[in-house]
Amino acid sequence: MAGCKKPVSSEVVEQDSNTAFTVVDLFCGAGGVSLGFQRAGFRVVTAYDAWLPAVETYQSNFTHDCQQIEITRALELPPVDVIVGGPPCQGFSSAGTRRTDDARNTLVSVFASLVARHKPRAFVFENVEGFLTGSHGSFVLELLEPVIQAGYFVHVRKVNAANFGVPQHRKRVIAIGGLGWEPSFPRSTHSALGAPGAHLANGRASAPAVTLLHALGDLPEPSRDPEAAPLSDHYYVPLKADDLARAKLLRPGERMKDLPEELWHKSYRRRAFRRVMDGTPTERRGGAPAGIRRLKCDEPSKAITSGALREFIHPSSDRPLSIRECAILQSFPVNFEFRGRVADRIQLIGNAVPPLLAQCIAHVLQQDLLLSQKSKARGALLSFVPTLSEGMSPALAAVTKKVTKRFRVSTGGRYQASLWD
């Protein structure tokens, strides 16, 4: 796998004190959004997160301030051009337990209220695709109603990070708002064929997707010993017994269902035939299980989550990925340092916004800010594109109907109609 090009530079960008546009990063996590915006030329003034491993990781990689603090509506923010953030998503993430009573869900409305009260020129919001259908769409309304009432013009769209050069199929919801002016939404830069609905999101993109091979090709072999790792966090725990037997049988692209049933995990066996008729798992049920999967070297990786170390097998070696490989598949630089226990570090990586996706958004927003003039008093929802596929689940269809009716935005009968307007 040698001699391949990495998707991002291996150097962490230093803060440019002369940058024109300023940013505050809420719920900053490891700093994926901050890094992307810095690379695009923004100046991050400060960042906030309540979780100590996130704050320690952020402080290890950036020269500006990061405060460990509970983010509430009462938080006083410095005056900036842009507020960015992705409130914790576990309450409605399909990768874990769904609980509509999870207190973290209310942080969506906290983010919206802080934007509405401080009125930056623009905001960028990111979250998991489960955000759309969580609590029957109430989280979408919690985000949109305060900011639109405050005068923001907003796009809400689901994207696949692979369409923006990230070596990973990662579907996320992005909202971009401009105060009194209409922001653009970034166009795809890469084709990501192979994912559901990918052909609908390619637009004018001509570059092929960045594959796992391209992303990881220059790395040395990881060590089994953390102390002997050739790069920080570039080691793995060897598979044992049944897990090694599973790995040896899996070919690239295959997963647990392709193995003999006697090798299925007990938890997978219990869940394998579960049916979720409306596309939204009920309370305390996660998404459809993959169990274990061997990745393919000639495609982008599957989405990196906090379970990646136990769920993914390297394309050509009978081993799990290293933490460093997971970070690179998220488009973090090779020298980006993660703090905390192993479980903390992989959670920071799995929860992060890929810096390269953030950079693509920031580049477009920067051009908008240079040209924008606040001229409209009333805000509006400019587009709502909740899926990249040609159909949608009943749950998502119900939310789409609720949102489009509430904000009088049309999807034109085809939910991709506004993707490339």
Seen as an oligomer or otherwise, the chain set is single chain
In whole angstroms, the N-to-C terminal distance is 39 Å
Q: In DSSP terms, counting alpha (H) and pi (I) runs of 4 or more, how many helices? A: 12
- Low-pLDDT regions: 1-10, 275-288, 412-421
Beta-strand content estimate: 5-15%
Which strand order spans the largest sheet, edge to edge or round the barrel? 3-2-1-4-5-7-6-12
Instruction: Determine the fraction of residues in helical runs and give it as a percent range.
Output: 25-40%
- SSE order, one letter for each helix or strand: EHEHEEHEHEEEEHHHEHEHHHEH
Task: Give Rg in angstroms.
Answer: 21 Å
- Based on Cα principal axes, name the global outline: globular
Largest sheet: 8 strands, mixed
- From the helix content, strand content and strand pairing, which structural class follows? alpha/beta
Can you give the mean pLDDT?
Answer: 85
**Count of distinct strands:** 12
Short description:
The protein has 421 residues and is an alpha/beta fold.
Structure, described:
This protein has about 425 residues and is of the alpha/beta class. The protein contains twelve helices and twelve strands. The strands form three sheets. An eight-stranded mixed β-sheet has the order 3-2-1-4-5-7-6-12, with helices on both faces. The longest helix has 17 residues. The radius of gyration is 21 Å and the shape is globular.
Keywords:
421 residues, disordered C terminus, eight-stranded mixed beta sheet, 12 helices, alpha/beta, 27% helix, single chain, two-stranded parallel sheet
Question: What order do the helices and strands come in, and which of them pair?
Answer:
Elements: E1 22-26, H1 32-39, E2 43-49, H2 52-61, E3 65-68, E4 82-85, H3 107-118, E5 122-128, H4 138-149, E6 152-160, E7 171-179, E8 190-191, E9 207-208, H5 212-216, H6 241-249, H7 266-271, E10 293-294, H8 308-311, E11 312-313, H9 323-329, H10 342-351, H11 355-371, E12 380-385, H12 394-407
Parallel strand pairs: 1-2, 1-4, 2-3, 4-5, 6-12, 8-9, 10-11
Antiparallel strand pairs: 5-7, 6-7
